[in-house]
Amino acid sequence: MNRENKRKIFEKGYYKTHPCRDSFTCKVCGWLVTPEAAGSDYRNHCPNCLSSLHMDEEPGDRAAECGGVMDPIGVWVRKNGEWAVIHRCRRCGKLSSNRSAADDNPVKLMSIALKPLAMPPFPLERIEAITTLMGGEGRLL
C-alpha cells in the first residue's frame, strides 16, 4: 500500500496515535525507505535526500490535498538540542518542520545547515560597509 492511499483507508487522525511501520520509495531519489532505522515510530521523510511529501496539515492527520514534494530548505535546533528539518512544498509553498531521524544523511543535513554561510544574502565584499551602517567600526579583525 502506498502512502497516498493510506488517508483513504484509515479514519481521521489515525496516524496521530498509531506508528507508521510501512516502507515506501522516495519520489525524489528513489531510495527504499524503511521505518526500522529511524529511531522513532514516525517516519516522514527520506533519510537519503531528506525530501518528503505534503501529506499532513497537522502532524499525522493525512488531511493535505496537495500531495506535492516537500524540499528540505533548512535545519533548526529545538530546545532539547534535537535537530529538525524545515521543508517547503514545491506546489503550495507550505512550510513544515520534521524531527531529524537517526539514519538521516549527516552530510546532507550539514550542507543544508551551512548553506546560509556558503551563500549569504549579501556580497561578502561589502561586509565592512554593512557593519559600518549597523553602527560597528566597519573593520575586519
In a few lines, what is going on in this structure?
It comes from Flintibacter hominis. With 141 residues, the chain is of the alpha+beta class. It is built from four helices and six strands, in the order ααββββββαα.
Main beta sheet: 4 strands, antiparallel
Q: Strand order, main sheet: write it out.
A: 3-4-5-6
| Secondary-structure-derived class | alpha+beta
Mean pLDDT: 81
What is the helix tally? 4
Counting structural domains, the number is: 1
Using only CA atoms, what is the Rg? 19 Å
Shape: elongated
Tell me the series of helices and strands, N- to C-terminal: HHEEEEEEHH
As a percent range, the share of strand residues is 15-25%
Number of strands: 6
What separation lies between the terminal Cα atoms? Answer: 59 Å
Binned, the helix content reads 10-25%
Low-confidence stretches: none
Domain RNHCP: 22-110
Pfam family, one: RNHCP
Protein name: RNHCP domain-containing protein
InterPro entries: RNHCP (IPR024439)
Structure description:
The chain contains four helices and six strands, in the order H-H-E-E-E-E-E-E-H-H. By secondary structure, it is an alpha+beta fold. A hairpin with a 5-residue loop joins strand 4 and strand 5 (about 85-90). It is elongated. The model has no long low-confidence stretch (mean pLDDT about 80).
